[in-house]
Write a structure and sequence with these properties.
The chain is mainly β. The protein has one domain: Beta Barrel (Porin). The protein has one helix and 13 strands; from the N terminus they run βαββββββββββββ. A 13-stranded antiparallel β-sheet has the order 1-2-3-4-5-6-7-8-9-10-11-12-13. The chain is globular. The protein starts with a strand and ends with a strand.
Length: 255
């Protein structure tokens, strides 16, 4: 008899593909009050019968908003196995601090640490900074603007260590993005972001990252999120495909 049990599905946010840099547009808050905000999530999936698998995801996020600064820390851990074999094991921590230089220009500094056994990534560390410019911003009298078009540019130092005795890779990359955010009302938000990250010494070594997401507020502290993520690495590690795609769903719980 075929039995399928899905025990719990409560997630902090989208289960993102762990890219060279977290897509911070999905993490950026426009409608939160000043002070500290926490988001915690956990999900557990169990399947038995013709196929057997067990998956677990845990998430935590801290936002700190002041008049001039906006900072957040995000952490994610995921582990999944099927018939005793591990097929997903990854995690990351990301810290970002931003400061408003004017109504349309924002300075950003960030650091990140991550691993992803699926692509043989043993450890990635990066630190960087840049500027964000809002090309267009349409306000509506609500906390969240109706429409925001923004571009960002910066530099990040990156160190990568791979499995199977691959040499440690150290690079200075440019990090550039175009983002569009649309909030037609307080319950609905669309975000689309595309990153271009290139080695400053060899621009043929680049990554393209894209994310499109939709968030629907169900209650004041609970919202449903669905997203599409794509990643293309022109020069991946040996034995790793040049691309990854993922479609994911989850819920946000904020307190």
């Amino acid at each position: 008899m075929k039995i399928r049990i899905f025990c719990v599905y409560i997630a902090l946010s989208l289960s993102c593909v762990l890219l060279a840099q977290v897509n911070t547009e999905n993490l950026r808050k426009y409608n939160a009050d000043r002070g500290f905000h926490h988001t915690v999530g956990f999900s557990l999936g169990l399947q038995e019968g013709n196929s057997e698998s067990l998956s677990m995801k845990s998430n935590y996020r801290l936002d700190w908003l002041t008049t001039a600064y906006y900072s957040f820390f995000a952490a994610n851990y995921e582990r999944a196995e099927s018939r005793g074999k591990l097929y997903s094991h990854k995690g990351f921590m990301h810290l970002r601090v931003t400061r408003n230089l004017s109504d349309y220009v924002i300075a950003e500094g960030f650091t990140q640490k991550e691993f992803n056994a699926f692509i043989d990534l043993k450890d990635r560390q990066l630190i960087g900074s840049g500027l964000r410019y809002e090309i267009m911003r349409t306000d509506s009298g609500r906390k969240s603007p109706v429409l925001v078009w923004a571009v960002g540019a910066g530099l990040m130092w990156e160190r990568e260590m791979y499995e199977h005795n691959e040499p440690t890779v150290r690079k200075l990359r440019s990090t550039n993005y175009l983002s569009i955010r649309w909030n037609p009302d307080d319950r609905l938000a669309f975000v689309a972001t595309t990153y271009y990250q290139a080695d400053t010494r060899a621009f043929s070594d680049y990554r393209l990252l894209h994310n499109t997401s939709m968030t629907i507020a169900l209650w004041k502290k609970l919202s449903f999120v669905t997203a599409f993520n794509a990643r293309y690495d022109h020069r991946p590690a040996p034995g790793i495909r040049t691309y990854d795609v993922e479609l994911s769903n989850g819920v946000n719980i904020v307190f």
